[in-house]
């Protein structure tokens, strides 16, 4: 799997202004131009108030050098940890099952939310996929006799998990559509539903992921791919001059 991935894609942590702009450009193309989720911006960049407290990542095509996918981890600034809220905490305030998890009782410096995942339209080829910012369908896995791997989607999620581990984030939250959640489970990304569904650009389910559980639970094949992605993340952090930031040090502090 890792050899196939390296033929097509690589991940790049977007830790510079130039790379973050590429992230915002993809989001504008997908969220504003293609899906109409957000208003068109004259500068062609889609950004919001959460971006300043986020870690961003990009997926790059090896053959063309084009950035084709992006995502972010929204962090909590430890200086205002008790006042700050993740987007999911706001949108799902009425539906979260706090008997399963209450984000306010966790170490706020070690939680983050996966959001603003986007893949450009030419990589969402099948009918129906162009209506979603990122999609993983049954066809992405092939058949029992001819299995395939959804390299692009895997790259996005494994990059986020690697960034979370590097910066000491232990718990991730995500708001996702039911079908995507089930297909993430097939990829080995264990999701725990933590509340009732809400209406947000369609039906969305709030879920939680444990970074350590996901990494520890990886099979041999997925672990090999994760190590490749993690090396790319480390190289990107070093190139951005962030190598002095130790795991566990919160980038917002």
Polypeptide structure, described:
There is one protein chain. The protein is an alpha+beta fold and 253 residues long. It has seven helices and eight strands, in the order H-E-H-E-E-H-E-H-E-H-E-E-E-H-H. The N and C termini lie far apart (37 Å).
The major sheet is characterized as:
8 strands, mixed
Radius of gyration (CA) equals 17 Å
- Helix and strand succession? HEHEEHEHEHEEEHH
| Helix fraction bin | 25-40%
Low-confidence spans: 136-148, 243-250
Q: Tell me which oligomeric state these chains represent.
A: single chain
Q: Classify the beta-strand content into a percent band.
A: 15-25%
Which class best fits the helix and strand makeup?
alpha+beta
List the helices and strands and how they pair.
Elements: H1 2-8, E1 9-14, H2 17-34, E2 54-61, E3 67-75, H3 87-91, E4 111-119, H4 151-166, E5 171-176, H5 178-186, E6 192-193, E7 198-199, E8 203-210, H6 211-216, H7 220-239
Parallel strand pairs: 4-5
Antiparallel strand pairs: 1-2, 2-3, 3-4, 5-8, 6-8, 7-8
């Amino acid at each position: 799997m890792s050899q196939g991935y390296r033929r097509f894609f690589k991940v790049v942590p977007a830790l510079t202004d130039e790379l973050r702009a590429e992230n915002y450009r993809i989001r504008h193309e997908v969220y504003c131009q293609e899906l109409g989720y957000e208003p068109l911006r004259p500068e062609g960049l889609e950004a919001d108030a959460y971006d300043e407290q986020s870690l961003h990542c990009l997926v790059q095509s090896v053959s063309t050098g084009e950035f084709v996918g992006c995502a972010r981890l929204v962090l909590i600034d430890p200086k205002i940890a008790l006042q700050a809220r993740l987007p999911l905490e706001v949108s799902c305030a009425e539906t979260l099952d706090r008997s399963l998890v209450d984000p306010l009782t966790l170490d706020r410096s070690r939680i983050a939310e996966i959001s603003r995942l986007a893949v450009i339209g030419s990589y969402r080829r099948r009918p129906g996929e162009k209506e979603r910012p990122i999609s993983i369908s049954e066809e992405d896995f092939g058949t029992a006799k001819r299995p395939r791997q959804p390299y692009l989607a895997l790259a996005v999620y494994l990059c986020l998990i690697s960034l979370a581990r590097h910066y000491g984030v232990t718990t991730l939250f995500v708001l996702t559509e039911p079908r995507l959640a089930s297909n993430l489970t097939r990829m080995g990304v264990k999701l725990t539903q933590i509340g009732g569904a809400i209406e947000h650009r369609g039906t969305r389910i709030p879920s939680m992921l444990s970074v350590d559980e996901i990494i520890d639970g990886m099979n041999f094949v997925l672990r090999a791919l994760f190590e490749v992605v993690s090396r790319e993340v480390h190289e990107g952090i070093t190139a951005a001059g962030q190598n002095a930031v130790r795991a566990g040090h919160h980038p917002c502090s």
